[in-house]
Design a protein that fits this description.
The protein has about 325 residues and is of the alpha/beta class. It has a single domain (about 5-325), classed as Alpha-Beta Barrel (TIM Barrel), CATH 3.20.20. It contains twelve helices and 14 strands. Strand 1 (about 5) and strand 2 form a beta hairpin.
């Protein structure tokens, strides 16, 4: 699989990475997630399952892996895999995130699955937890779902702490979510400490249905940030699992295009993101080996300009996209 530098930094990433949101905890909002885990949520079973998916990704050339403190035991599963396979830290790039605390107590249904707090104590605590598990493998530490209302981009104590970590050699990033992704990113590109741009990378949602942050992500790329795209298949909405009647007209178009390329609709959706010149790595959120193989076909697809235009025309209003996402069920 093709690899490249993350933005203007020396760390290497594969064009497809693996995100562990659906592998590290029993419940997630991806359509059909319950079927992926077969209803067996024993920690040892889920860890072995995660290792199997990680082995498949590594064998295919994927070398960027993305976790978070709130992804249940994702960091722990990734750490035990890295150690048991004796993978050289120089051969792999690992990103994780701080700012959400996992609170579902290993349950599929919970009153709250995660609690958000972008304070200095949370940063310090979760960094210690991430470093305890990942050690020398941790390359990129990201604010998890930075927003203007959390105040994290104006919290001097947090920003100063992050700048210190950056001086120590840790890449600093932020992930985005919601209809104001572009506004938050524009504000993040203004954050400088001692004249130095704080952020080295940004992770955002961008896909066939949600394209609103494209201009801001282009600006981030031009500023030297690494650009990581998450939710490229819209939490399963751009897969055969989406049977919503309102999606049916778009599904027919995507299926027709996928058939012309002799591929799946999820691979086509991922290839659409990979075709953007400002993208460094696109995350697969696969929770099974079968889904990962289907996703990885995107790396071999070269889409024609007319196909890109047809897919671009399927975008929906950003507010509608995030409203639909907010109603996806944990399963």
């Amino acid at each position: 699989m093709e690899s490249r530098r993350l933005g203007r930094h020396q760390v290497k990433v594969s064009v497809l990475g693996l995100g562990l949101a659906a592998l590290g905890r029993p419940g997630y909002i991806t359509l059909g997630h319950a079927a992926d885990l077969g209803g067996n949520y024993e920690t040892a079973v889920m860890e072995q399952h995660a290792h199997h998916v990680l082995d498949t990704a590594w064998a295919a050339g994927i070398c960027y892996f993305d976790a978070a403190r709130s992804y249940g035991r994702a960091e722990a599963f990734l750490a035990s895999w890295l150690q048991s396979r004796q993978i050289d830290p120089a051969m792999i790039t690992v990103g994780s995130k701080w700012g959400y605390t996992y609170t579902a107590n290993w349950q599929v249904q919970a009153a709250k699955h995660e609690v958000k707090e972008h304070s200095l104590p949370v940063l310090q605590r979760q960094l210690g937890e991430s470093r305890h598990l990942l050690g020398a493998y941790l390359d990129l530490y990201q604010i998890h779902s930075a927003t203007l209302d959390s105040g994290v981009l104006t919290n001097r104590a947090v920003l100063t702490e992050l700048a210190g970590l950056k001086r120590e050699g840790l890449l600093i990033g932020l992930s985005l979510s919601g209809a104001e992704q572009a506004v938050v990113l524009e504000r993040a590109l203004e954050v400088r400490l001692d004249g130095v741009l704080l952020f080295d990378a940004v992770q955002a949602t961008w896909n066939v249905l949600e394209q609103a942050a494209g201009a801001a992500l282009t600006a981030a790329h031009e500023a030297g940030l690494g650009v990581i795209i998450k939710e490229a298949v819209a939490n399963g909405r751009l897969t055969p699992r989406n049977h919503q009647p309102t999606f049916a007209p778009k599904r027919r178009i995507i299926e027709s295009l996928a058939a012309a390329y002799e591929t799946t609709i999820d691979a086509l959706a991922l290839a659409f993101v990979l075709a953007q010149p400002w993208v460094d790595v696109v995350l697969s959120g696969a929770a099974t080996v079968a889904h990962l193989h289907s996703n990885m076909a995107a790396a071999r697809l070269v889409l024609r300009p007319d196909t890109l235009q047809q897919l671009q025309a399927l975008a929906e209003p950003s507010a509608d996209y995030w409203q639909t996402r907010s109603h996806l069920a944990w399963n």
